[in-house]
Write a structure and sequence with these properties.
The complex is a heterodimer of chains A (309) and B (254). Chain A is α/β, with parallel strands linked by helices and 309 residues long. Chain A is 36% helix and 24% strand. Chain A is built from 13 helices and 13 strands. Chain B is mostly helical. In chain B, α4 crosses α6 and α6 runs antiparallel to α8. Classes of the chains: A alpha/beta (309), B mainly alpha (254).
């Protein structure tokens, strides 16, 4: 768990963070979102002491982060950024091994860890180990960036707009992958983004910031259904709220007994995709299959309305 | 062209230059008849006061020592001026270096010789001075060229300042720094010849003796060796630069 208590920060007389109090739950993926200048990145960088607060304190697992040197603190906290920041003169293996090297792990342990992480991120180790960053695509580089951040098995992973520079398809794949990794590892992840769809998709806990203060925090549904202010309503996208809500629900949650004809939709797709299918196919009922392709029932158009519950 | 091909390219020229230099050095002691045919009016067409091998070694000695000191001082000055604490001194340092570069080598030698005596010392002073600018400038430019995000992420991963310098900044700046050293060494190989005017033993000796005695053969014998040395050194650095940049995408057309 990360606790931020009464933190203030100014840059050249401009107050960037106003008396921030925030608790980020352990084992969850928290998203800090806001427009530029909202203080989201500053908040993230204070967590690994890249920026020091002017006043207040930050506790990691109950312990004040100032009780450790910044360097040893950072080695316990994974860090990945938008421009990836892979070391261009190091191979994929050396890049991933950066923090374990700093922690002086034995060679064989580092090698095993690199193999494990490359496999986890679906980069075949034999093929990618010895490549240099310039020999990888943007998406592959970002995977290596994430692997590097995870290398020393940190308790906390900080990600500063990690998928910002990627094309939409690659971004979507990596977002799904992050959800999978988070579910597998149960790590506490704090991710900064300015993309509301990314926040709604990834965030188990969403913190919307404005001018160095918290505008609203909570689950995706809270922000969409009960916006605390006009700013929040505007930010989460007034006219698209319904669509975004559908994006949070899964087809499987609304399946009924029955049969229908046509191309089936998978139960793990979200309702937003289902709506799209209803409209493009001009039908009111879709057959649903599970991940193994077994028929599991039907989805009725009217049942989409239940999504707002 | 692929990197492999440019690498082979650099190596081929290095080998060719070295072979030419070695061949010329081996042939020179037996070249009296050839120079005699070329310059029939000269009584002694082959420089024989000193062996050419000895002169090449002495020349390289002076260049190595002066470049070594210039690299040590230049890199230190560059690192210092590039650091947080030294940033304020950077404009001053660059001005001083630019002025030192503007002084002609002969003037530096003329001023230094009466102060420190004749021989290798004034030569070393002049050569160090000339090597400093490209080395320092290369260090500063090289460190500037390193991506800020890469350094920031190194810090975020928990590297100390020294570790960032050693593992990230210096290796990434190395190609540009090396280019500065390359310029310094090649310039110094040429400038070292002039140092013979103040009594330093270099390949400048046959050139200066030849010039003052109207012996063109001596001038050619010295000058060709200086030129070949400079070419070989240049190619050596080209090859070294390939070696320190395995991570860079192949450069087009070079």
């Amino acid at each position: 768990m990360i606790e931020i208590r009464h933190v203030n920060k100014s840059f050249q007389g401009q107050q960037a963070i106003h008396d921030l109090n925030l608790t980020l739950p352990a084992g969850e993926l928290s998203v800090l979102i806001g427009s530029s200048g909202s203080g989201k990145s500053t908040t993230l960088k204070m967590l690994n002491r890249l920026i020091e607060p002017d006043s207040g304190s930050i506790l990691l697992a109950g312990e004040d982060i100032r009780r450790q040197s910044p360097d040893s603190l950072r080695r316990r906290i994974g860090y990945a950024i938008q421009s990836v920041g892979l070391f261009p003169h190091w191979t994929v293996e050396q890049n991933i091994a950066a923090v374990p090297q700093l922690l002086k792990w034995p060679k064989s342990r580092i090698q095993d860890r690199v193999t494990e992480l490359l496999t986890l991120l679906q980069l075949p180790p034999a093929q990618y180990r010895q490549r240099y960053p310039h020999q990888l695509s943007g998406g592959q580089q970002q995977r290596v960036g994430v692997a590097r951040a995870l290398a020393a098995d940190p308790d906390v992973l900080l990600m500063d707009e990690p998928f910002g520079a990627l094309d939409p398809i690659t971004r979507h794949t990596l977002q799904q992958e992050l959800i999978r990794i988070q579910a597998l590892s149960g790590k506490t992840i704090v991710l900064v983004t300015h993309d509301i769809d990314e926040a709604l998709l990834l965030g188990q806990h969403i913190v919307l910031m404005e001018h160095g203060r918290i505008a609203q925090q909570g689950k995706a549904q809270d922000l969409l259904l009960h916006p605390a202010s006009d700013f929040v309503r505007h930010f989460v996208g007034q006219s698209d709220t319904g669509i975004r809500l559908l994006g949070l629900g899964k087809v499987g949650e609304r399946v009924r007994q029955g049969q229908a004809s046509g191309e089936p939709i998978r139960a793990d797709r979200n309702l937003r995709e289902a709506l799209s299918l209803f409209v493009t196919r001009q039908v009111t009922c879709l057959p649903v299959v599970d991940e193994h392709g077994q028929a599991s029932g039907v989805l009725h158009f009217n049942d989409l309305l239940g999504a707002a519950a | 062209m692929s990197r492999l091909a440019t690498g082979l390219h650099a190596r081929r020229w290095l080998l060719a230059g070295s072979a030419l230099l070695a061949g010329w050095l081996l042939y020179l002691p037996h070249s009296e008849a050839w120079f005699a045919r070329w310059f029939p009016e000269l009584e002694r067409p082959l420089y024989q006061q000193e062996g050419f091998g000895t002169l090449v070694l002495a020349h390289l000695g002076i260049v190595t020592v002066s470049s070594g000191i210039a690299v040590l001082l230049g890199v230190s000055a560059g690192l210092l001026a590039g650091s947080r604490f030294g940033r304020a001194f950077r404009p001053l340092l660059e001005t001083i270096l630019a002025i030192s570069q503007a002084l002609p080598p002969v003037a530096v030698l003329a001023v230094a010789a009466p102060l420190v005596g004749f021989g290798s010392t004034p030569a070393l002073i002049a050569l160090i001075l000339y090597g400093l600018l490209p080395v320092t400038q290369g260090t500063l430019t090289g460190m500037d060229s390193v991506d800020r995000d890469t350094q920031a992420v190194a810090q975020g991963l928990g590297m100390t300042r020294l570790q960032i310098l050693r593992h990230v900044t210096l290796p990434l700046a190395a190609p540009v720094m090396l280019a500065g050293v390359r310029t310094a060494v090649v310039i110094n190989i040429g400038t070292a010849a002039i140092a013979s005017t103040v009594g330093a033993k270099t390949l400048g000796l046959p050139i200066i003796v030849g010039l003052s005695g109207f012996n063109t053969a001596y001038v050619i014998q010295g000058a060709v060796l200086v030129a070949l040395l400079a070419i070989v050194a240049d190619q050596l650095f080209e090859w070294l630069e390939e070696r320190v940049t395995p991570h860079l995408p192949a450069r087009a057309g070079s």
